[in-house]
């Protein structure tokens, strides 16, 4: 072996090696190595008067080569102190105490698990380990504490299935720095109240705004645990609900027609024209059912001409989109009041029902137009983090261990999150059933 290969594979210099050889067996690489003796002293009495009692062969898993198993056959010296009789092994540069996996392998595993698309199985395959061993490494070295609450929080749920009790976990995000602060086991009221109660009042009092979707439990929890914070409803969810109200109008009108009717065809196949912001002008294409060349704006006009209620509902939604996009903190209250008045005058059942929702969240909608550091309050970045959390879960085909899932999310989403290389004293382990008694067969 050349010096470069020794340094790259073993992470030791040529001067430290007494003898080294390598061979291949069953598509695996074995490196037989003895290191030069270094000055050391007895850990009990401190004496340097030592004798070599024996050499102990240690087999160390080492991920030097990707997709290929590598084992270091390390001949470790065992010393005996001539003063006190204590026996001990020389320091090993490859592994920590009580481990048979090299430090470089552990670092490679932790580095790969930083990637969103990585799974415990794929990392195990790359490093010639078992998935269980990779999970054990992750649990031992990655245990990230809750991050400090910040000035503006975003809160939302993500479908995780980490528990049979609740299918949703709750994410808490820093709006300004886009850091994931924590993942809560579920979104139930008593769970959230208990979680925030454990945080000091001083820390909670620093929170000025909390952005959320229209989930009443979140609002009641924030009002109880963050009395100084203002609540803002994410504008995306308001627009989404308005779009659903318009779609319900479409469905009600659709049921009045038969499948053979042109109106049914238009409402069924081109509903997306109603739901988008505004259809783009495109080149007219021939439509067999209509027996004419027609483009998207013309199709939309045909759909709206089917029902006066549908047209009015569409115009109200378009007006709200304009209000949502161009209003400011100073004029939004007046504009929203005028819009609510128009909704009431329309008398459309679906619009009237959604109007109750807007009234129910009136102040929270007004608060969402506030800008902090030049940015309007929203949960936009949270939707991105939800996507990562779902990808982590889906790639692994689900997590049964919530704490492991929580640590993985915090580890992946926060760039500065680092493993504790001295090992965590509180490694994550699932509580299994107590092992039953058995009789050993003789």
From TrEMBL:
Superkingdom of origin: Bacteria
Domain Transposase IS204/IS1001/IS1096/IS1165 DDE: 153-408
UniProt-listed InterPro entries: Transpos_ISL3, Transposase_DDE, Transposase_Znf
Protein name: ISL3 family transposase
Annotated organism of origin: Faecalicoccus acidiformans
Domain Transposase IS204/IS1001/IS1096/IS1165 zinc-finger: 39-84
Pfam families, alphabetized: DDE_Tnp_ISL3 (PF01610), Zn_ribbon_ISL3 (PF14690)
């Amino acid at each position: 072996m050349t010096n470069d290969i020794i340094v790259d594979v073993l992470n030791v210099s040529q001067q430290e090696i007494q003898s080294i050889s390598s061979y291949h067996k069953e598509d695996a690489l074995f490196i037989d190595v003895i290191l030069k003796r270094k000055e050391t002293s007895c850990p009990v009495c401190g004496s340097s008067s030592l004798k070599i009692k024996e050499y102990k062969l240690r087999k160390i898993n080492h991920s030097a080569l990707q997709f290929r198993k590598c084992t270091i056959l390390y001949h470790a010296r065992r010393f005996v102190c001539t003063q006190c009789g204590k026996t001990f092994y020389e320091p090993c540069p490859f592994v920590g105490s009580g481990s048979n996996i090299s430090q470089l392998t552990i670092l490679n595993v932790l580095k790969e698990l930083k990637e969103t698309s990585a799974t415990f199985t794929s990392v195990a395959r790359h490093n010639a380990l078992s998935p269980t061993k990779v999970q054990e490494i992750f649990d031992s070295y990655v245990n990230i504490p809750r991050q400090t609450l910040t000035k503006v929080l975003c809160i939302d749920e993500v479908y995780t299935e980490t528990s049979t009790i609740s299918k949703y976990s709750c994410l808490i995000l820093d709006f300004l720095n886009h850091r994931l602060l924590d993942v809560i086991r579920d979104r139930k009221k008593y769970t959230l109240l208990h979680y925030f109660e454990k945080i000091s009042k001083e820390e909670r009092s620093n929170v000025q705004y909390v952005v959320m979707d229209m989930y009443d439990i979140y609002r009641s929890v924030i009002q109880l645990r963050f009395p100084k914070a203002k609540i803002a409803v994410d504008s995306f969810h308001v627009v989404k609900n308005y779009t659903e109200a318009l779609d319900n109008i479409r469905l009600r009108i659709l049921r009045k027609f038969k499948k053979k009717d042109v109106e049914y065809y238009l409402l069924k196949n081109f509903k997306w024209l109603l739901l988008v912001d505004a259809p783009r002008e495109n080149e007219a294409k021939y439509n067999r059912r209509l027996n004419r060349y027609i483009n998207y704006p013309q199709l939309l006009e045909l759909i709206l001409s089917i029902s006066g209620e549908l047209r009015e509902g569409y115009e109200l939604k378009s007006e709200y989109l304009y209000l949502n996009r161009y209003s400011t903190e100073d004029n939004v209250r007046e504009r929203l009041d005028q819009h609510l008045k128009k909704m009431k005058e329309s008398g459309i059942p679906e619009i009237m029902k959604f109007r109750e929702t807007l009234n129910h969240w009136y102040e929270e909608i007004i608060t969402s137009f506030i800008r902090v550091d030049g940015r309007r309050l929203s949960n936009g970045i949270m939707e991105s983090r939800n996507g990562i959390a779902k990808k982590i879960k889906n790639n692994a085909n689900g997590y049964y261990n919530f704490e492991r899932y929580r640590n993985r999310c915090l580890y992946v989403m926060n760039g500065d999150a680092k493993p504790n290389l001295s090992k965590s004293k509180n490694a994550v382990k699932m509580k299994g059933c107590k092992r039953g008694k058995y009789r050993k067969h003789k």
